[in-house]
Amino acid sequence: MRLRKLLIGILIMGGIACNKSVTNLPDNPITNNTTTQKNTNTDINTWIHENMTAYYLWTDKMPAIAKTNTNSNPMDYFYSILYDYHTTDRFSWIDSSSTNLINQLNGINTVLGIRVTAFYTDDTKVNVALVISYVLKGSPAEKNGLKRGDIILSVDDQTITSSNYNSVLQNQTLKLGLGTYNNKVFSSTGKSVTVTKVELQTNPILQDTVINWSGKKVGYFAYLQFLTSFDDSLRAAFGRFKAKGINELVVDLRYNGGGYVSNSDLLTTLIVKDLASKVDKVMNKKMYNDAYTKEVIKQYGSAALVTNFKNEANNIGTLDRVFILTSTGTASASELIINNLKPFMNVILIGEHTYGKNVGSFTITDNAKRWNYGLQPITFKILNSLDQSDYGTVNGFLPDYALTDDILPYKLLGDPTETYLNKALSIIGPSAYKVNAISGFTSVSRANKVQSNSISDNPIQDKFDMFDKPLKRKN
């Protein structure tokens, strides 16, 4: 009975909106009946444990509350009750501000608007150059003329090193010293740009274009985060592809760490071949903990655990295959796309192995406003239509064609000579491309990366997640 009441609580939560506060969020799945405002660690940790017991995927592996230290700091307490943290559960997290948590899940962050890849400037592996991997649309970085491929050699007149490169972009206002890379040598241009961070709604569509290649029309689509607020923009991009009659598709998910399951499912639907024959058939399935699964089935039937294909007017429909560009930062909802499509068409992966996250989460907050913590615990595992979900390892999905993003200078996303895209095009056809208002081939060379993953100017953006909106209560 207790779990059924908790289930009803989460069913009435509804969705998360792109708001800058949590004032209008629906009630939490679990609250107590007292009107006394308590903020002791014991009260907060008891609330955390109750919610985790109800919804955590590995609830049967959690310690009983009597065996935990409910007086500890809530941030520490949350991690102390996770199952095999860092190994089995590499993903659950907590934020001291539910406002910040909800904003970041909806792509609202305070940023310059760049992601960078770190390279050693010489064989000593001391000094580091930051090469811009992408620039967000409408960001301070874009407004100051920065673009993919630009090189940063100093920040606030300090040399970037192997010990500080992860933190040098954290200040609110930054003076970026620019450089070049020629003949395998990094050198300063003597120029700099000063940029101040602002709160920005991420536009996840980095690029969409059509390339004429070897007698084919190749759609290229670079997507940064799965955001439901951009559902219509996603549909519009594929509407343009469909109108132009593309017969090959390259989806660039190198920098996409996840997001909403429903937006990922939408992209699956827009890509999959012969959608009409798949409508109302299974796309994927969710597995919750045993007790929660039983209650969902009791309230809604087993169909509530399944997502079926739906009609989408802008579905391409004719593709036999899709090329997906990947990195070790391709995670969660990005990997879901791959797993969703594999039963239905040839999915060709180019790049590095993916992150390996086949589980997702709900967002849990205390709308009674006794405290402002936001929980993001793993609450479900997701499988494709063939009940496959074997990519939840540190190696994720392995590429069909292995590449690393270490060829400099970087070309703009959508440029046929850009390393990853060019590999896909070479598989599509051997003929040279026709220059289409895009830069031609130039001399390139391999540089020495500091680490595999690119990094953001705001570390909040470097989290990987896949999350879903709770079911709504029936009328």
Question: Please, could you describe this protein's structure?
Answer:
- With 475 residues, the chain is an alpha+beta fold.
- Helices cover 21% and strands 27% of the residues.
- The chain folds into 3 domains: 2-105, no CATH class; 110-201, Roll (Pdz3 Domain); 205-359 and 382-441, 2-enoyl-CoA Hydratase, Chain A, domain 1.
- It is built from 10 helices and 26 strands.
- Strands 3, 4, 5, 6, 7, 8 and 25 form a 7-stranded antiparallel β-sheet that branches. The protein has a 6-stranded mixed β-sheet with strand order 10-11-12-16-17-22, with helices on both faces.
- Helix 6 runs parallel beside helix 7 (261-271) and helix 7 (261-271) packs parallel to helix 9.
- The radius of gyration is 23 Å and the shape is globular.
- The two termini are 20 Å apart.
- Mean pLDDT is 88; it is low at 1-28, 31-37 and 433-442.
What brief labels describe this structure?
475 residues, alpha+beta, Pdz3 Domain, 2-enoyl-CoA Hydratase, Chain A, domain 1, 3 domains, six-stranded mixed β-sheet, 10 helices, 26 strands, 21% helix, 27% strand, globular, disordered N terminus
Fold topology:
Elements: H1 2-11, H2 41-55, H3 74-80, E1 93-95, H4 98-105, E2 108-111, E3 114-120, E4 128-135, H5 140-143, E5 151-155, E6 158-159, E7 173-182, E8 185-196, E9 198-201, E10 205-213, E11 216-223, H6 231-244, E12 248-252, E13 258-260, H7 261-271, E14 282-287, H8 290-300, E15 306-308, E16 321-326, H9 333-341, E17 346-351, E18 359-361, E19 364-365, E20 374-376, E21 378-384, E22 401-402, E23 407-408, H10 419-428, E24 445-446, E25 455-456, E26 465-467
Parallel strand pairs: 11-12, 12-16, 13-26, 16-17, 17-22
Antiparallel strand pairs: 1-20, 2-9, 3-4, 3-25, 4-5, 5-6, 5-7, 7-8, 10-11, 14-15, 14-21, 18-21, 19-20, 23-24
Helix pairs in contact: 6-7, 7-9
